[in-house]
Amino acid sequence: MNRLSSVIRRINVFNIISRYSGTAPLKTSISDESLSYIYNVGIRNSPIKEDLLNETKQLYPEIAQMSTDRIEGDFIEILIQSLNAKKCLEVGVFTGFSSLCAALGLPDDGKIIALDISDEFTSIARKYWERAGVSHKIDLKIGPALDNLHNLRREGHENSFDFAFLDADKENYLKYYENIIPLMRKGGVVLIDNIIFHNRVVDETNNGEDVKCLRLLNEWVTRDKRVKSVALPFADGIFMVTKK
Ligand SMILES: C[S@@+](CC[C@H](N)C(=O)[O-])C[C@H]1O[C@@H](n2cnc3c(N)ncnc32)[C@H](O)[C@@H]1O
């Protein structure tokens, strides 16, 4: 992590060089009505996904928005399928929406190693994985994700994952990222969720640890020579990264 610390010291997150020289981003032309239309027309019917999200809302009304965005979930499923992925990693499970989507995109002998710290949240997840018939594809490991990532590296999983989804505690994102990249195979894809974190990342008055960590991570990823990356302006902002 020495290279990491020295680069972090050099990054001034509010003095980011503008790399974009095009016209105004297309996103500004999407009205609320068009966005609703996209969400209505763009999501295929899936009673099990809707039930999971509805139960999450009932059980945890204050934090239900932690579930991965509905379109992002379908995007994960399609991406995994089109990559022919067989071995996936998820950091941050909650009640299991994104892992359900990932598992639905995997073949029957595919595997997801899913990491979370909460028995309570993931007990809901297990119920839906069972109902969807995908439990056998998901190996849930309860405990601090960083410890489990270190274990995976020690146990010989480096350079082997086809796909990873990072969606846990934001303060540790940079450490997670630095442990996920060595685990990915060449051409493997990592999606990093919440890179704008409900617009807090661009709010200069917000200097919460989670927000500061996301700013550093975003700069770090863009400069990382081990990968190619693109930031996708949907849901809560997503970095899509592929290992060279
Ligand atoms: C944003 S939620 C994940 C949402 C999930 N991807 C979904 O689609 O529902 C973040 C999760 O990270 C977990 N978490 C927080 N700190 C953690 C840690 N140190 N190690 C592992 N998991 C952690 C929380 O328990 C929570 O379930």
TrEMBL record:
Q: Does the keyword Phosphoprotein apply?
A: no
Could you confirm whether the keyword Nucleotide-binding appears in this record? no
What name does the UniProt record give this protein?
Caffeoyl-CoA O-methyltransferase
| Gene3D superfamilies per UniProt | Vaccinia Virus protein VP39 (3.40.50.150)
GO biological process: one example: methylation
According to its UniProt entry, this protein's organism is Blepharisma stoltei
Q: Name one Pfam family in it.
A: Methyltransf_3
Entry keywords, A to Z: Methyltransferase, S-adenosyl-L-methionine, Transferase
- Which family does the UniProt entry place this protein in? Belongs to the class I-like SAM-binding methyltransferase superfamily. Cation-dependent O-methyltransferase family.
Q: Which GO terms describe its molecular function?
A: O-methyltransferase activity; S-adenosylmethionine-dependent methyltransferase activity
